[in-house]
Design brief:
Length: about 70
Amino acid sequence: MDLNQWVDELFEVFDEDNDGVISRSEFVELIDVLLQDKGIRMCESIFKRFDTNHDNSISKEELREMVIELAL
């Protein structure tokens, strides 16, 4: 599976309300699954770092950048 397919699948699973972005609560769940305990402690700083347009949500492109940078 390539990176784009993986991001698409992550987005589909964690964008629970299908609004096209990952909200803070959805992001907490995503980080919990990907990084477990370490991720929960870092969740707020990770969210702020990758919410590059500061709209209080994570777009698919922002998620893609996060996956690439953090090598998830």
